[in-house]
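Design review, sub-item: ligand-bound model
Attendees: FS, YL, KQ
YL presented the inputs for the pyridoxal-5'-phosphate complex:
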Amino acid sequence: MIDVNKIRKDFPILKRKVNGQDLIYFDNAATSQTPLQVIEVITDYYSRLNANIHRGVHQLSQEATDAYEEARIKIQKHFNAAEAYEIIFTAGTTESINLLASGYNSLLKPGDELIISALEHHSNIVPWQMLCEKTGAILKVIPMTLNGSLDIESYHSLLNSKTKLIFVNHVSNALGTINPIKEIINEAHTYGAKVLIDGAQACPHIKTDVQELNVDYYVTSAHKLCGPTGVGMLYGKKELLRALPPYQGGGEMIASVTFEKTTYAGLPHKFEAGTPNICGGIAFGAALDYMNNLGFDVISKYEAELLAYATNSLKKIEGIKIYGEGLDKTAVISFNIGDIHPYDLGSILNQMGIAVRTGHHCAQPIMDFYEIPGTVRASFSFYNTFEEIDIMVTALKKAVLMLQ
Ligand SMILES: *Cc1c(COP(=O)(O)O)cnc(C)c1O
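KQ shared the predicted structure:
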């Protein structure tokens, strides 16, 4: 059982007011809030450890390096990667995907096929479109169905011996759909294709075991799971990462440099050019500690209760349409009411201190599929409460009266 009142004390931001009202934060799918335990690690880093890592002989540099590498091991353990060097620190999901897309530039030839899903975030669409333009590879799309899930039958028929890479999100950020990634991965492997799973939206809710999934690449951002912004990771199987050309050139990623020839460092440094977000990496580790201390079973059980309660309460509002209902999904509700523009609903909720997201949620193809400009998206976290949901539902009813 979750003691939500106790948990809320860990999140100082939840005490603030917005437009004179208590903040109700339902924009967790865009970024999560940060607990004191992580804030303290950040403060401690700049108060006690701040130094550049890996190159220094002095005490601070060694301590900062140790803390950073310990964080890498925490991430490795959390995702059950076989080796710590299979975890590459990046600036987040977007950079992780761009790193891979850049590496695949020299691994693809014209006519190779890539498969994407209709449920992707723009950051898992655009880098691949850019890559296809450069390489002459062809991008194919797994269609979605009306209820917001992937059409897996079509996926099977898209696969063939030319398929090189498949990229699908673990959980859709716009709808919350949990995709059948195990099945997608297994099927891809029978054709020798590799699979990248975008885990940005899954990691706050689901503990993922990359070896059990047998996934080739898995990416996420720390800020969706109680960590800071601007840091994330790319997991890759070691043999694949070794075969992948480096992403950026610079310090830290080399073994030796002369003007005749530069040799690259081994994993993970080959992909970590320049001074990284050291504090961010350490705080990422602290965020995983915080979530694991609560326990992912406990988190997902409570969030499922919030989701069921919110879905029931929202459905009582006349004219509401929820997209992606009845799915295996995380605690995300995307909806519209009548023909009210989502932005207008979001603005009125904001006046009442309630933070939701409105718009296309960086997933315009999904909005095009439903022929809507966007939705209102309320996304819940383990620090949200049933009372907050009641307040939002009351606020929405008031908003409808004002707008209709
Ligand atoms: C948030 C998100 C991203 C982008 O993450 P950044 O931290 O902005 O790089 C990509 N995919 C999904 C599914 C997301 O939810």
